[in-house]
Write a structure and sequence with these properties.
single chain, 410 residues, alpha/beta, Lyase, Ornithine Decarboxylase, Chain A, domain 1, TIM Barrel, 2 domains, nine-stranded mixed beta sheet, eight-stranded parallel barrel, 20 strands, 24% strand, binds pyridoxal-5'-phosphate
């Protein structure tokens, strides 16, 4: 994935112009890429009744939500606040799936009032839900098939110690609760983690879910979660969506025949839809030659891009403003008073103080995981849509830092 000079243009908009106009650091998203990913997924599953629910915790700007809705996409939310953002962006409650973990029954009741599809992953909550609503509010149940999936232990959520979902081994107990409270289960769900490479993992999970599904008579959909792996570096192997589509479609159709009814098939990708659409533009503040390394210190850090620190994630870096410079080896580090390496031992076109660097794959879990640590402002966000750059979030100011602080007599 060696980027050529022309790749610095997104829909004809030069990323350097965006940095000049809106300043740095700045997140820039390519609307076309998001739509392309959405269409790739729906294309791979065209022979089933497919619904995509965008897992919006990846990137919650309401314009991204609006963009995906305009393509027919639904929403997967993990908090009542995300539900509200969805409504703000124009989603109908029934288009929103609410998949919280570890929240109180009170928050779930608020979501019921709004009218979104509830997904429950805890037997205690299921009992309280049944007690409150009986069969009057249908509910989806999140099962944990205990598949080890995903490249990194922090993003693998299907294993036996995981806090997510109700163990597939507890299905008999779930069935008793469902019967006792006369609960209407309209969906079954699994989400085993991120960065799943092997279609086999989805297939094994799907088979376990199909097996459990025979016991539930009111199903309208099955939700296979997410975890599609996207490319981060040159030559990365990614989930073969088309192959996965073929194999899941076959199995799903067979299952529906056995079950006696055609169900909807749901997925809830986050990363797959938005990761590659994003570029995080930073400026080289200082070059620092030490005895062992040349550091590039940029005007950002773990406060704006946490993934390298949190998950050892790799984000490709490109020097936008010196594309023909001689290649040299650098460590790109942030300005936070922590060791916040953004890229270790990278071969970049010579970086000079003032150069603009692009960090790739900054669409997912970049802005949405950002903080004000070191009392830095969160960056602006820009969406390139229909060949034009649009500011979709203003850069923070000092007012944002002190807005909620209460000064008392000291
Ligand atoms: C985070 C999350 C997703 C999205 O995961 P990606 O790896 O970004 O695709 C999907 N479903 C649930 C329940 C999640 O918590």
């Amino acid at each position: 994935m060696e980027l050529k000079e022309t790749s610095y243009q997104i829909q004809g908009v030069d990323l350097l112009d965006v940095a000049n106009e809106y300043g740095s650091p700045v997140y820039v998203y390519d609307a076309d890429k998001i739509v392309k990913q959405y269409k790739r997924l729906t294309g791979a599953f065209k022979d089933v009744d497919l619904k995509i629910k965008y897992a919006c915790k990846a990137l919650t700007n309401i314009n991204i939500l609006k963009l995906l809705r305009s393509e027919g996409c639904g929403l997967d939310t993990v908090s009542i606040q995300e539900v509200k953002l969805g409504l703000e962006a124009g989603y109908e409650p029934h288009e929103i799936l609410y998949t919280p973990n570890g929240v109180s029954i009170d928050e779930i009741k608020k979501a019921v009032e709004i009218g979104v599809q509830i997904n429950i992953d805890n037997i205690s909550i299921l009992e309280q839900f049944g007690d409150a609503y009986g069969s009057s509010v249908p509910v989806c149940i999140r099962l944990n098939p205990h598949i080890m999936a995903g490249g990194h232990s922090h993003i693998s959520v299907g294993h036996i110690d995981s806090k997510f979902g109700i163990s597939i081994h507890q299905v008999p107990h779930v069935l008793r609760v469902v019967k006792n409270y006369d609960i209407k289960v309209n969906g079954l769900h699994m989400h085993t983690g991120s960065d799943i490479l092997d279609p086999e993992v989805f297939i094994i999970g799907a088979d376990l879910l199909f097996n459990a599904a025979r016991e539930f008579k009111d199903l309208e959909f099955m939700d296979f979660g997410s975890g599609f792996k996207v490319g981060y570096r040159q030559g990365d192997v990614t989930t073969d969506i088309e192959a996965l589509g073929k194999r899941i479609t076959e199995r799903f159709q067979t299952f529906c025949e056995d079950y006696g009814r055609a169900l909807q098939l749901w997925f809830e990708p986050g990363k797959f839809l938005v990761s590659e659409s994003g570029y995080f533009l930073v400026r080289a503040n200082v070059i620092k030659q030490t005895t062992s390394t040349v550091f590039v210190g940029v005007d950002s850090g773990q406060n704006h891009l946490l993934r390298p620190k949190l998950y050892d994630a790799y984000h490709q870096i490109t020097n936008l403003s010196n594309p023909n410079g001689t290649k040299r080896i650098y460590s790109v580090v942030g300005y936070i008073c922590e060791t916040d390496t953004l890229g270790y031992d990278r071969q970049l076109n010579e970086v000079r103080e003032g150069d603009i660097l692009a960090m790739h794959n900054a669409g997912a879990y970049a802005m949405s995981m950002s903080s004000n640590y070191n009392s830095r402002y969160r960056p602006a966000e820009v969406l390139i849509h229909k060949g034009k750059a649009h500011l979709i979030r203003k850069r923070e100011t000092f007012d944002d830092l002190i807005r909620n602080q209460v000064s008392i007599e000291i």
